[in-house]
Amino acid sequence: MPTTPLRRLREYNRTSLTYIAPRRKVVPRRAGVATTTFSKFNLFCFSLLSLSLFWISLIFILFSFFQIPLSGYSSSLSSSSCSPHSSPHPLSPQTEMALMYDAVHLFAKALGDLDRSRPIEVARLDCEGDDTWIYGNSLVNYMKWVQVRGLTGLIKFDAKGFRRDVTLDIVELTKTGLVKVGRWNPTSGANYTKSYREVEQDIVEELRRKNLVISSVLEPPYVMLQENSDGGTDSSQQRLEGFCIDLVREISQMLLFNYTVKLADDGTYGMFDADSGKWNGMIRELLEQKADLAIGDLTITHEREQVVDFTVPWMNLGVSILYRKSSKKTSFFFRFLSPVSADVWLSVASAYLVVSVMLFTIARFSPYEWTESHQCDTTEGRINEFSLLGSFWFCFGSLVQQGGNALPRAISTRIIAGVWWFFTLIMISSYTANLTAFLMAERLETLVESVDDLAKSQIQYGTLNGGSTWNFFRTSKLAIYQKMFNFMESQTPTVYSTSNEEGVSKVLKGDGQYAYIMESPSIEFATERHCDLIQVGGLLNSRSYGIALPPGSPYRTLINSALGKLQETGRLTDLKHKWWKVERGGGACQTKDDHYFENCCHGDKVPANVPERMLGLPCERMLEHPLIKSF
Fold first, then answer.
1. CATH code of the domain containing 504
2. Distance of alpha carbon 401 from its chain centroid, rounded?
3. In 10 A of CB 252, how many CB atoms?
4. What is the extent of the structural domain holding 357?
5. Which has more confidence, 584 or 207?
6. Is the CB of residue 215 less than 8 Å from the CB of residue 286?
């Protein structure tokens, strides 16, 4: 049994009783009567204080008997209980005992110091009167001035009577119980004694016990609904797949945590609304603690980094232009047929045949088309110049604006010839105008090779409405980007799209009159599946995709470490190859040369005709080596 605190308590109790007990004082005699200051009131106060000290001592002895330590109770005290603005929350019995012990200790010490400085006299006071004990203020001042080291640490007070310089132990609940992890004081704040490795291990243990809620949006190939056996998508149970789903699975297998992927309620990434002062999309769900992570083609921007935390990038990219290749496959020799459709050419050919036959037939029945033969002509009798071959030659000459040797003489044949000439005039004029427009459009199409060409052309272009690319043009200080943003904002109907899939569809249906601006990985994904789409120009900027977490999330360092390991092992490259070039129709537009070294980088078999001295090189160097390129 610890006896030292018990002896100290007995000593201070005895000292307190010595100073508080009423003393007999002889006063000058009045009328020959001797009086004392001892009264029934003093006896009552003395008895009450003695009884209180007795119970305090008894409780302390019980705690000592059951070996309940009273040292270190500072870890059980909250900072609010020692501050001027403490809240009236009930304390634990152990804490109350420690504070009562220290209060008696401090009172006895202050009372002893006061008695040594001056004699103390006990006077009778009336509880309903205005008189006060003349030594009360002095005792209170001594209690503010004196310093005692008690069970709850160093005890000292400020001028207002509040305890100051409190030192609290910071404890943490672990599997083995409460463990001291640091100390706190008002001057320097919290000081944790745990090492970085211990803190990281605690976070790992905490992460393994949690089921993380991950927010995302549907965007191929990052997050997609799984396909059914019949080729459709399953939206009933929201079963998801894609690059980001595999990425989360890889990270969870490394860090050993469970997770649940849910789609964002409004299906957006996250944009700040200046009118309402709130965020939407996945960023809002992180801020409202509805999700622990947000993953997808979520771009790391300065505006988003002000409200949430991002991991290291798992993909670097930029903004570029998606455009459609020329759909006209006509050779140079037959290019003159392109200005008008095949139906028009068939109609012209049919009209040519009908008019030629009609001219031949009417000329045969009209007597005015029969003339005497020339004297040098050996043919006897009358002749008709509009034979079948002559009629075809006359109509063809009129069609190409060249005429012929014979001219109609009869009124009927002249009417037919006039109608045909008027028809050929309109036809040739229309063909010439269409040919000029066709050549000019073809020339403009070949000039769109950069963002500057796109801005100067008459081609419409747009972005994802409210996305990071839209925000890039909105906040850019470059004149050309400001011009493009103003152009997109002024178009009616809108040139923006609600998803990248809608933007790609507009490019396919636009027949060269619409371009879509989006991130380069999404452009690569589209061009792998639509062979008539190309990327025009280089990257307009440089940006990255990352995983977003709530501000101050303790899991950021662990996820960064996992992403770094996946990057070093090449797992991220394998996942990108899987979802860009293999799954969901990938590789449909690869050429023979693209397939040549497919097994070299992502298979087990190397092509047989690769030189032996190249087999020991890394795949990237093999693809760039001149000997390999020569095949």
1. 3.40.190.10
2. 67
3. 16
4. 335-442
5. 207
6. yes
